Amino acid sequence: MVNAVIDTPPLAAVASPARGARIDVQGVSHRFPGLGSQPPLPVLADIDLTVAPGEFVALLGPSGCGKSTLLRLVAGLEPASAGQLTQDGRPITRPDPSRIVVFQDPTLYPWRTVWDNVALGLQARGVLREQRGRVDQALALVGLTEFAGAHPHALSGGMA
Q1: Strand ranges (DSSP E) for 36-149?
Q2: Superfamily of domain 23-91
Q3: Looking at CB atoms within 10 Å, which of 28, 30, 35, 73 has the fewest?
Q4: Are the C-beta atoms of residues 99 and 75 closer than 8 Å to each other?
């Protein structure tokens, strides 16, 4: 039997710093406007949540309970009816590339090629000309280089 002593620093000393941002949801409520003479539909009521930088969080609940609505609020796609959402202490008032939403179903523009769909974010930010190589890198990373010129109807569900 061999006894060995391995001298390693504590885990905290070797771990890299957490990447990401702190998200705080404080007292957030949200209602969808009523249709016609119907009253507004309450969807979220007094939600409090803190997500630390680098933390992984899963939202679980039945269909229609407000999971997607909360994600849309955090993404800045719409404002909360009440309460406050902040990223690193700054109010979330609009979408930002640091907060993105990946939809449950593929949301591709059918008239754009695969390459053009992937390039959409860079194009919207006005940096496509300088960073077009990132589109090719992304397609290579997921094995879709040969489908860059295809339209979404030509893709399988997994490819989309």
Answers
A1: 41-51, 82-87, 90-91
A2: P-loop containing nucleotide triphosphate hydrolases (3.40.50.300)
A3: 35
A4: yes
Neighbours of 100 (CB within 10 A): 10
Output DSSP code: residue 94: S
Reported as a single tens digit per residue, the pLDDT across 2-41 is 434 444 445 555 555 678 899 999 999 999 888 888 898 8
Structure confidence at residue 16 (pLDDT)? 58
Burial 46-76 (b: 16+ CB within 10 A, else e): ebeeebeeeeeeeeeeeeeebeebbbbbbbb
- Rounded distance, CA 34 to CA 146, Å? 47
The pLDDT of 120-133, averaged and rounded, is 91
How far apart are the C-alpha atoms of 126 and 120, rounded to whole Å?
A: 10
